[in-house]
Amino acid sequence: MNNYTIDNSQSLTQWIDQLLNSCMPSWLATTVECLLVGVGLLLVYALLALFYILYERKICAYFQCRLGPNRVGPWGLFQSMADAVKMLIKELISLNHIDKFLFALAPYLVIIASMLCFAVLPWGNGLQIIDFNIGIFFLIACSSIGVLGILLAGWSSNNKFTLIGALRSGAQMVSYELSVGLSILTMVAFAGTMDVGKIVEAQADGWFIFTAHVPAIIAFVIYMIAGTAETNRGPFDLPEAESELTAGYHTEYSGIHFGFFYLAEYLNLFVVSGVATLMFFGGWMPFRIEGWDGFNEIMGYIPSVVWFLMKAFVLSFVIIWFKWTYPRLRIDQLLSLEWKYLLPINLVNLVLMVVIIFAGWHF
Amino acid sequence: MISLGIFGIDNAVMAIVALLTGAALVALALWLAGLISPRSFNPQKGEAYECGIPTRGVSMTRFHVGYYLFAILFLMFDVETVFLFPWAVCLRALGGAGVAAVAVFFAILVLGLVYAWRKGALEWK
Predict the structure, then answer these.
(1) Is residue A279 within 8 Å of residue A215, measured between CB atoms?
(2) How far apart are CA A269 and CA A271, in angstroms?
(3) Does B37 lie in the same domain as B15?
(4) Segments forming the whole domain that contains residue B14
(5) Residue A219 contacts residue A227 (beta carbons within 8 Å)
(6) What is the domain count for chain B?
(7) Any idea where the domains of chain A sit in the sequence?
(8) Is there a single domain that holds both residue B44 and residue B68?
(9) 3-state SS class at B9
(10) Whether residues B90 and B118 fall in one domain
(11) For A87, which residue in chain B has the nearest alpha carbon?
(12) Which residues from chain A sit within 8 angstroms of residue B78, using beta carbons?
């Protein structure tokens, strides 16, 4: 997992595998490999979250003509690190009338959901931790565990704000999950597979957003809107509308307990942009133009992990851009946007995609 | 057939590793916070935070029925998506017959959406 800058990582994992197997029994080697993957996941997860918090704060600052965090380290690079330490040394307040078990369980569910999604993403050439043949389906299934965590957090806190926040969040996330699922379904119909690795490989000659043109673009726009709503961000942040509900479902969580929800929110932002990258923008595949051999060769030199991260960061920028551009929706507007606009458009788009596949009107 | 993830280990094992990693992250951070965070007792501190006003009644209570309607609608369409995924994977292999079969299923579901719409189930009241 420590080979992010090396493009040829498939052979590197094989090399580690052989090295470990040569000096210890195979069950021990497997255990060590599992530990390596676990530690790697943990490190990348934490580092990406720290980076994303700074990324969003800097971008929002520039949108508002401010400088953003700039005291801790050069350009405020260590600000989110300092914030993490601050959260760790805050008191974990024990509350009186809560359901203690569910209250403690909720952060676990939220973090585990985002960690499982995180592990399915294709990080680079051969750098994919879970490679199920129903990968994208597994990802959708895991991401819905997060809703459960949020509902439990709101319910167990025994607070009216958290209850309302959790229910709003639940209604919003399940509604928009339909659009996420259907726009992914449209692309699965085009790709003909649910295997994440194969979807990426199918885009070697052209990203799906180009090869499947109109329906892919419609699906992409719907996916971005629904993905923003899925992560409770941007104009869809009414579950935690601070002017109405103090902090929504995590009002009663203090210190690092609150930090988990914060962490998961930013990681879900990365997961949403990562899925958009793999479904529409070729995952870790470099950008290629037919016939431009020199250009293609230069693009091929950039490691696949860098390609994946760059595309995901650009898409995350778009989602953050939504947040700082549009005003917050009301709950009735939110639900009618999903059920009366996105869902019918999505169903029509699926039919359009089927027509295009059978007529062969794609590249 | 066993499908393999990174290092050639079974995917199910890797999924469990990812799950345990998530749990370990929460447990480790909580343990660390328990070691270094301060602790003080104050009977008022444990009360529900509702902007300083003492809370009235129980909060684990009944809520708006509108959420229930949307949950039911979600269930209907989510199951639809689950049924459509296997068809989408072998769309080309099944050809016209598959499309015709799914079209019937699809039409019934769209009818369901139209019904819910006309009945006003999609209005937030």
Answers:
(1) no
(2) 5
(3) yes
(4) 1-58
(5) no
(6) 2
(7) 89-359
(8) no
(9) coil
(10) yes
(11) B33
(12) 174, 177-178, 181
Contacts of A132 in chain B (CB under 8 A): 3, 5, 11, 15
Question: ipTM for the complex?
Answer: 0.86
Segment-wise mean pLDDT, segments of 10 residues, chain A, 363 residues: 42 73 78 84 89 90 87 85 87 81 90 89 81 86 88 85 85 88 90 86 83 88 91 79 71 84 89 91 81 79 85 91 86 86 91 87 76
A185, closest residue in chain B (CA to CA): B85
Beta-carbon count within 10 A of B55 CB: 14
Alpha helices in chain A (DSSP H): 9-23, 26-63, 79-88, 100-120, 135-143, 145-156, 160-191, 196-201, 208-211, 213-230, 242-245, 255-280, 293-301, 304-323, 331-336, 343-359
Q: Both B8 and B42 in a single domain?
A: yes
Q: Which of B27, B42, B58 is the last residue of a domain?
A: B58
Q: Are residues B66 and B113 in the same domain?
A: yes
Structure tokens at A24: 């210890």
Q: How many CB atoms lie within 10 A of CB A141?
A: 14
Q: Which of B14, B117, B119 to mutate to test the interface with A (most CBs of A within 10 A)?
A: B14
The separation between the first and the last C-alpha atoms of chain A, rounded to the nearest angstrom, is: 36
Residue B4 bridge partners (DSSP): B10
Contacts of residue A115, Cβ cutoff 8 Å, sequence gap at least 6: A41, A45, A267, B18, B19, B21, B22, B25
Closest among A231, A213, A323, A314 to A272, alpha carbons compared? A231
- B36/B80 same-domain check: no
Q: Token pair for residue A321?
A: 């851009």
